[in-house]
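User: Design a sequence. Structure:
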C-alpha cells in the first residue's frame, strides 16, 4: 500500500507521522510519501515585501529536513496550491497513493468544542481516497492492541470501508471486528410495557444479527473457515461506535462515507466526520468507491 502524509510545519504533523511509523513497523513493505502544501496568496494582498512562493517553498523544504533521512518516507517536499486540500489531492494522484494520512489539530484551551481543522473538514467532503485522521500528538505506545473496528450501516456507503478494513487489518496483523449500529426509536418505550419493549429490542437484535452475518459474507470479510467477529449495538451512531472502540480496545476505526453534499450537511452531519473529530485513536473515513 502507498500512503501520502499531509505535513504541518508547526509540529511536523506529530500525530500523522507517528501513525505512519506505527504502520511501517508492522507493514514494512508499505511505502510512505510526505508533502507540505504552501497555499498561494496574491502578491497584491501580501505586499511587495512579502516572500515569494518560491522562497516560502524553500523555507518549508528546509523545515522538513528532519524527516528526510530517517527512513520513513520515500520522498517528501513542499508544493504550492491555491488550497491545501487541492494540493494534497494532487500529491496523492501524482504518487498514486492508496490512502492519505492527516493529523487533527489540537484545540486551544479556550475552545470548548472538539473540531477538525479547515483542511481536514474539506477533505472529508471531497474524500478522494481513504483518509486517516490521527489525533494530535499520538503516542504509538498508547495505541491499544485490539482489533480494527469497522462500523457499518449495511448500506452501499460501507462497501469501500469493508474493502479497506479487510486490507489494513491483514497488513497490520490485527483482528477485524464488524459493528452494526441499530437505532430504535427511543420514544416507543414510553408507550410499551417494559416486557414488550424488551421483546421488541430482542427481535430487532435477532434480525440485525442475521442481516449483519449476510453482509459480512457478501463482502468477503470472513477469512476461510474463520468467521470475522461481529457485534450489534444500540444507540446514536457516533457515540455507540466510540463505545465499541473503547470496550474492544480497538487500535483503529474504519467508517464509510455517505458522500453528503454541502446542502445536506446543513441538516445532518457525517458520522465519519463526527468520529474523526473526537476519537482518541486513528479513524479512517473511506469513500464507497474504494477498490
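Assistant: Done.
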Amino acid at each position: 500500500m502507498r500512503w501520502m502524509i499531509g505535513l504541518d510545519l508547526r509540529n511536523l504533523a506529530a500525530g500523522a507521522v507517528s501513525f505512519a511509523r506505527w504502520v511501517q513497523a508492522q507493514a514494512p513493505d508499505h511505502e510512505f510519501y510526505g508533502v507540505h502544501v504552501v497555499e498561494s496568496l496574491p502578491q497584491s494582498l501580501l505586499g511587495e515585501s512579502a516572500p515569494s512562493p518560491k522562497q516560502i517553498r524553500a523555507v518549508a523544504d528546509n523545515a522538513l529536513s528532519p524527516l528526510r533521512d530517517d527512513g520513513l518516507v520515500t520522498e517528501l517536499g513542499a508544493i504550492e496550491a491555491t488550497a491545501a486540500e487541492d494540493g494534497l489531492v494532487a500529491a496523492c494522484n501524482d504518487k498514486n497513493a492508496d490512502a492519505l494520512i492527516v493529523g487533527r489539530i489540537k484545540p486551544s484551551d479556550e475552545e470548548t468544542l472538539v473540531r477538525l481543522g479547515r483542511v481536514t473538514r474539506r477533505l472529508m467532503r471531497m474524500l478522494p481516497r481513504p483518509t486517516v485522521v490521527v489525533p494530535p500528538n499520538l503516542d504509538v505506545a498508547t495505541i491499544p492492541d485490539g482489533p480494527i473496528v469497522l462500523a457499518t450501516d449495511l448500506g452501499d456507503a460501507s462497501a469501500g470501508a469493508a474493502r479497506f478494513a479487510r486490507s489494513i487489518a491483514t497488513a497490520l496483523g490485527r483482528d477485524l471486528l464488524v459493528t452494526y449500529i441499530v437505532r430504535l426509536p427511543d420514544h416507543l418505550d414510553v408507550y410499551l410495557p417494559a416486557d414488550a419493549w424488551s421483546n421488541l429490542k430482542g427481535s430487532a437484535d435477532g434480525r440485525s444479527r442475521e442481516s449483519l452475518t449476510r453482509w459480512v459474507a457478501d463482502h468477503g470479510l470472513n477469512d476461510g473457515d474463520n468467521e470475522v467477529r461481529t457485534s450489534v449495538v444500540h444507540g446514536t451512531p457516533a457515540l455507540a461506535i466510540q463505545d465499541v472502540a473503547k470496550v474492544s480496545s480497538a487500535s483503529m476505526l474504519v467508517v464509510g462515507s455517505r458522500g453528503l453534499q454541502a446542502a445536506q450537511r446543513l441538516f445532518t452531519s457525517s458520522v465519519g466526520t463526527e468520529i474523526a473529530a473526537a476519537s482518541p485513536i486513528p479513524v479512517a473515513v473511506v469513500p464507497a468507491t474504494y477498490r
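Strands lie at 2-6, 31-39, 75-81, 99-103, 131-134, 148-152, 176-182, 229-234, 252-256, 283-286. The radius of gyration is 21 Å.
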